[in-house]
Fold this protein.
Amino acid sequence: MSQLMSGAQILLECLTREGVEVVFGYPGGVTLPLYDAMYDHDLRHVLVRHEENAVFAAQGYARSSGKVGVCCATSGPGATNLITGLVDAMMDSIPVVALTGQVSSKLIGTDAFQEADTFGITRPCTKHNYLVKDLADLPRILHEAFYIASTGRPGPVLVDIPKDVFQGQIHYVPVNSIHLPGYKLHSDGHAGQIRRAAHMMWEAKRPFIYAGGGIVNANASAELRELVDILDAPSVCTLMGLGSMPSSHPNFISMPGMHGSYAANMGMTHADLLIALGVRFDDRVTGRLAAFAPHAKVIHLDVDPAEIGKNRAVDLPIVGDAKKVLTKLNKVLAEIAPAESPANSESRKAWWKQIRAWKDEHPLEPRFSDTEIKPQHLMHEIDRISGGNAIVTSDVGQHQMWAAQLIKFNEPRLWINSGGLGSMGFGLPSAIGAQYANPDKLVFSISGDGGFQMSLPELATIVNYALPIKIIIMNNGYLGMVRQWQDLFYNNRLSSVTLDGFPDAEKLAAAYGFKGRTIEHPSELIPALKEAVAENGPYLLNIKVTPFENVYPMVPAGGAINEMVLGDPTPVAVK
Ligand SMILES: Cc1ncc(C[n+]2csc(CCOP(=O)(O)OP(=O)(O)O)c2C)c(N)n1
């Protein structure tokens, strides 16, 4: 028997049916009916301090758990504050459902108080969006939103709900099936192409696996590892894919690209077969596209057909879900495995010898000093204390690149950062979502002194919800990554990159009711990290590091990825 319910109650019922545990949000005038309904409901709502952080927190929840993250904002400024986070989720293919309030239906188009065209504004920055015009459509739309956000190539879906839709009442009839004839999922992969790919993989002399965030999204890490083991091929993971190969795996090389390792970039450049899995040939990885992997045939597996050939022409496309396709591929590879393993062939042996030589020539290593804390030293110690098992969220800048280079991950979904959009302010709120999804895990939030100050108000949220996040500020006194570019490409004319006036961390944390401190000597680093980890609650550790350290290797913008600056200002072009 159907029940008479308000739109707000129906929304909460649909969220419950979708298995939603928590919504990150901020209320306002038009969402009052929703928040009133929440008063009597079990659904947890985390009140953040800015809507942008609601969507970042929802992303942290989604990225660390694989479930859909949910955020909520009021109309007008509440909704527009979500934009950066939505674009961010779109760029990194993160499943998020954003619920926004809208002015009452009859006021739409009248420039009503706090009216913004959320539907129009968010059209290009969501996978799909809806404006609910009729309460009867609300349950269907909500379930479709979750389905679209989480299937195929994941992404953000926004549902804009006018106030009268929240307030209206209807007999609620649960929606049990989804019918979207225009939304086609390509999941299985073409059997012929999979077979052809398997042959190419066995025939290659210098195969190289290039795995990305698509592997994480598809929960296909185990299948990726199996593929790597079958082929005994070297493998890199992009910034978005880190963790999908355990960092300790002998075939794992590191991250490729602008701040990737020498061996990763040289491997890409000299491979004769690039096995691209859930990647999008991002310019930060490829460098100058015309010079990228010039000797390689390319196999490209992606769930989104629009990615095939977008940046790099491919020799063999496979459109499908990475988990399903890799399962089939691994089976075919085993079936057609040559009697004489190619791993023993002279060319494969020579390939591995070369890769190892590149690794040894320029390894990614921490740097140390007796007098100053080197940023790399900091990441090295975080790595040691986390043992590859902690969740590490990062902000954007130099610290992000050093963390990606030097912190190891045993599993996917531990490394959480804004890859595509590169949104400063992401680190702290995404840690909130990640800690919420993983209450028993150790969570480090690493930010620069710049990015931290973009999301600093969330310290209150962290305290309110007793989240024991270890907040690490890599404080170099500068907008470090911008300073680095001004140093290297603008004659060190440092323009508006100095961050004076950073607050006393101990007092700042104390003002919010928890512990914090500042350290600046290398001898303090390990004890301070241990103290932070031992603390029951959150801890704010402000770490003053060498101010003028640059991230290397570095491929200058527009350069080929084998033209790395390896710590010396002169580019080293390697054949
Ligand atoms: C919202 C936003 N604004 C500006 C930038 C451009 N930007 C990229 S890195 C960076 C500097 C970051 O400085 P900080 O947070 O101190 O980190 P560091 O590079 O020193 O590690 C800036 C300004 C950005 N990525 N995001």
